[in-house]
Structure formats: structure tokens, C-alpha cells
Amino acid sequence: MSTPSNTNDNVDFDENNDLSTQIVKSVAIEVPHGDNRANFDGPGTSHAELLAEIRRLFLRLEAVESQLSRESSEDEAYQGVDYTKAVEVEPTVGSRRMSGRSSLDSAPTKDKEMNGTDGSFVRKSNKKKEKTTPVRFEGSAWNIPLVIGLADVGWMDTCSAAFIVLANLGMQTAFSGLLISEPFMGESFDSNLESARIWRRSVAHDDAYIDLSGGTAVVDACTGLVSRVCAVDGALILSNKQATLVKQINAFLGINKANPLTPQLFQPGVLLCILCILLWTLCVYKEIRGVWLFLEATMQIPRARCTSFQNYAFSQISYRRYCLLLWTYAARAAIAGWLLVAGVLWLARTTSITELMLNAVALNAILAVDEFLFSCLTPIKIQHVIQTLDPIQVKYSRRRSQCETVTHFTFISAVVLLAYVLLVGPLTDTMQEVKRELCGGNQTFVVTYNRDAQLTYGLVTNKAAARNDGQLSTSELAVNFEEDRTRGMSGESSNWPFCIETNLLMEGTLTGNANLQPAAEVMLRNAGLALGYQMVSDCAQLSHMCDSPNASLLRLVCGATCGCTDAVSSPFYKVPAQGCSQACLQDAEDKLANLTCENNETGRNWDTFWNTYEAALTGYYGEEMTQTSVWNTVTSTVQGMLRHGCGYLEVEPQDFVTGVNWCEGLPDLFKPLAHICPKTCGCNGFAADELPSYCPLRCGA
């Protein structure tokens, strides 16, 4: 019997003869007749069973032909294909074999002609074969809309599948949004630049964090915090963030101890970062390319009002389902593109080479959410339908394949190149700047700030204990350093045997001295910094701050501007503890040596003294005087002094707040009022050697 067919499952194609490219037109099966039937029939095999077997074979061949007819574009033969060769088919029935032979019908004479030598047919048409490639739909939650409502499942499975699609969309959208958010990305590495500057100018050289080998201030060797951080000292208990940052920069740029500020030619972090960005780009591009192929495959299915789905194949698809699939592909591509940008930014901000690979792998897990949902939660019958869908043939020419290859390489190369130029390259430059801020310059010194004297003192570290070059050893420097850090303003003002402003900053006897002039200018700048002014070069710039409680250093440097050399200025702050040096105060007394020992409130800032009493006491105690319980008493005293002058000192001889005698003054705040009211304070009638210390020298007989 003969049945039309292209091929069947039992045909053994010979690859060497290219039978896989031949079109099988028919299969002939020879059935034994007559006496041979007895030989064919074996034990337990009847004629009816044989016919049933032949019918089953016929049905199988017919199904194969139906399937291959849809793939005829792939089964067209090339020129020179032999159509005369036969294929043997030997089905087995019981323990016997039935031999048969299939022959090829002659090909159409329109496209073939007989070869005279071997009798084969040769294709005459010069039309090139049109190539196609099968596109299979992967097991993904994104592909559930393709078959939802078409699979033979219950309403519970259908609702579950729809929920999985929405959950997949929500999860990937949420991941994409969080990945690009500022809390997740964190601050840019550039923010470390300013913090490094602040750390280096404040904590890094603070003497409070010095490593003292002997445990005391007098040591033979000491190391500052900056030196320990830049050496990545494992015993650090402070500035661990800076030490970790230095360690990451060294590993990322390949910096070694020999050249602590110079990156090496081979930079492990840069190479690994580029490789991780390339890996992530490939992962995302695989997703994008898959979306494009699925879109092309979907466009090959004819559209109609209703979807036709039989034997796991689409004959046509409805417009609504087609639009749903297009929306799904667009959402999938948008999420993939967003993840590509966010992932590249995140990887380019990762400065720890140990975390780069982990971050790249973690990013890939976001793309696999749809596969996890499909494998774990999708109903098994829907899984089966998607996995057994017939592939859809998409036409691919050689030219198109080459164009796509160029596109693939161009896209991947462009992403990686832009990531390096815009992100990784600037990151390495910023890392070098941060390293220079943290560890550049001189590391071998520490400083301390004397709040009382408002001066900063330094100590050189990492020096030999014994010096033969005449310089101080570390031990000697440490002793001087300890004295400087604990000395108050009274001691600092006593160190200057002359008035700084009149002798150095003005046209004085020491102006231009190579040793003293720079020191005075530094002190002036420090005075300005203590009051919030930078790069002060003249005392007149700060004259309005002279009566500030925090201007003790300013009064030391600018004694003439702040009234320390004026005997008739307000007594407040005209004491060594508030910055006026003894030399400046002596200059003021020398100007009044010829005056008589009489009271003289006029012209001596008597009113100024009492009007500034509240502000001066508030600054001295650090508490608002108007809020205290004694303020009413203080107010009455001030009003009495302003109204009656020096005579009121006999009524109120003692300050109610400080407890000191007005005539004797308060050494920490104001000079004795005996300089204004010597007669009321009883400074008359004393010999020079018996004169009370608070009385002016001119009162001594």
C-alpha cells in the first residue's frame, strides 16, 4: 500500500547522503501474498493484527506529513539533490520483520531535470533558500499572558496565573525603583573629598589621639592619628571609616607602600569594575534580545477576532491578546533598560573590590524574578502548555544576521565604554584626590588648641630621641608642647615683655624683626579665626570685637587698638587674664604719671563700665544675668553708680555677684576701680613701698 508522506519517526536518514534535505513523496510497503503469508505470520500474529498495525503506521505517517507541511520552507531542496534514492522502512510485528521500501516520486519538472549520468534530478531554479529560525517561548511569568485563558485549567489556576503576572510586574518595578533611589545608591564618592579635608584639618593631627609609646606626654617616639590611618593600623579604635577608605582606595588602584600616593599601571579594582559592568550588560542585553525575538515571533501569528489554539500551536491570535502581549513586551523591555542604567551606576559606585562580584550577582537575581515565580508558583498545567508550545519560525537572512551581530557588539561596547569614561574614570581621579587629602603632605606632627590662650601649638612626631644637630629631640619637644597646651592667657601675656601692636605691627622698635614679626602676624590671624574672621592682616579690621568676651587673644595682639595702653578706657578686660599684657598696661600707667591722686569719673569711661556690666558678667559666667534672682539688686547698684559716681562706692563697696571689692577689682575680669576713684578707695597717704597693690603708682608719696 502507498501513503503520501514527507517522513516518519522510523526513517533512518543518512546524513552523508543529505537525505534530511530531500522531500519524501511516498512510502511503499510490500505485504506478502500467497504462501509467503504463512511464513510472515508468526506465532500469535493474525492477519487482522497485521492490518491494524499497518493502519497505525499509516496514521503516524499522515501526522508527520501534516507537521512537515508547515515547515516546507525549511525542506526545500538545493540544486543537485538526488530524488531517486529509496529509503527502507522495516517495521517490526511480533518477532518477525516486515521489509518495505519507500521511493521518491519524481520532482516537478518545472524546477528539475534528469541528470544523464546518475538519473538524479537537479534544481534549475536559481532562487536562494529563505532561512528561518525557531523561536521557543521560555518558562517565564512574562509569557503567561500568551496562554492564559487557553489552557484547560480551572478558575483557581487562571486567577493564580493572573496574580503571578501582576506580582512579577510589581516586584521588578519595585526593585528597579529602589535600585536607583538615593537611600540605596548612597552618597557619591565625591562626598568623601570634603569629609577627608575636614578630618585632616581637625581630628587627624589632634594631640588627643597621639600614640604615645611610653604612655606619657614625654616620649622618645610618638605617632599621630593620620600616620596610623594611612598605614592602615589594625589597632585603631578611632577614624576606622577613614582607615577603611584608605584600604579600599589602595586595593582599587593597586597602591603599594613604596608609593603611597601613586596608582600602579595595573589597577585591579578598575579592571574588575569594568568586567562586572560588562557581565551585567550582557545579562540585561540577553533579556532585551529575548524580548525582541518574542515580539517578532508574536508578529508572525495572524491576527483575527478570536484566538485559535490547537495542538499547542497558534493558528491565529485575537487583537486583544496581541495588544496585551505588546504591552507586556514593552514593560519588560523598559524594566530591563532601567535596571541596566541603575546597575551600571551602582557597580561604578562600589569601591570595594570584594563587593563588586557580589553586587553583580545580586543584580542578576532581579532579572530572574519572573523565572522564580514561574517555577515556584505557576500552576503545573499552565507550565506544561508554555513549555510544549510549538516554536514559531522567524525569517532570518544572512544579511540580517550580520547586521544584528554588528548591533550587538556596538551596543555592548558603547555601554562599557561610556561607563568607563563617565563613571569609572572620574571615580579613579576622585579616589586619588581623596587619598591625597587623607595622607598627602606632612604627617609627622600633631597640634593642640589652647582654649584659654586661643592659640594652636604643634609637636613634631617620629623623630629620634637624641639629636646631634642642635635641634630638640622628641622628648624635649614634648615637654615644651605640654607646657604650651596648659598655659593660660595670663602666662601667655606674661611671655611678651613688650606691647605687640605698638612694637611689631605698628612702626615700632621691633618692626621687621625676622623672628618676631612672623609670629605676631600668625597670632593676629589666629585671633581673627577665634572670632570667625579669616586672613586678618590689620588690627583695625577687628576693632569692633575688642570688648567681646572671646577676644582675649585679640587684646593681647592689638593692645593699643583694644585700649590696653589707654589708662582712661573701661576697666573691663584690662587685665592680663583677659589678654592685656603687663607691658601694655604699664604703658597706660606711664601716661598718667603726672596726674594727682584724685577721683575723676569724667573722661574715664565710668559710664561705659557700668553700661557694659551685664554683658561682661554674662560672658564671664556663661549665663544670662537678667535671668538670675539677683538681677534686681544688681540693677539698683548699677543705677546708683551711674547717678552718684565714685561716692557710691562707699555705699556699695562690694560687688554682689562676684563678691569682690570694687576698688580692688577682679583679676580675671576687670582692673581695680581705684584707678578711677583713688581718693574714695583710700589710696592717699601711703608711701611708695606701702601702697596697696590695687592703687595707681602715682598715689605713692
UniProtKB/TrEMBL annotation:
<feature type="transmembrane region" description="Helical">
    <location>
        <begin position="405"/>
        <end position="427"/>
    </location>
</feature>
<keyword id="KW-0472">Membrane</keyword>
<feature type="transmembrane region" description="Helical">
    <location>
        <begin position="324"/>
        <end position="348"/>
    </location>
</feature>
<protein>
    <submittedName>
        <fullName>Uncharacterized protein</fullName>
    </submittedName>
</protein>
<keyword id="KW-0812">Transmembrane</keyword>
<feature type="transmembrane region" description="Helical">
    <location>
        <begin position="360"/>
        <end position="380"/>
    </location>
</feature>
<keyword id="KW-1133">Transmembrane helix</keyword>
<feature type="region of interest" description="Disordered">
    <location>
        <begin position="89"/>
        <end position="134"/>
    </location>
</feature>
<feature type="transmembrane region" description="Helical">
    <location>
        <begin position="265"/>
        <end position="285"/>
    </location>
</feature>
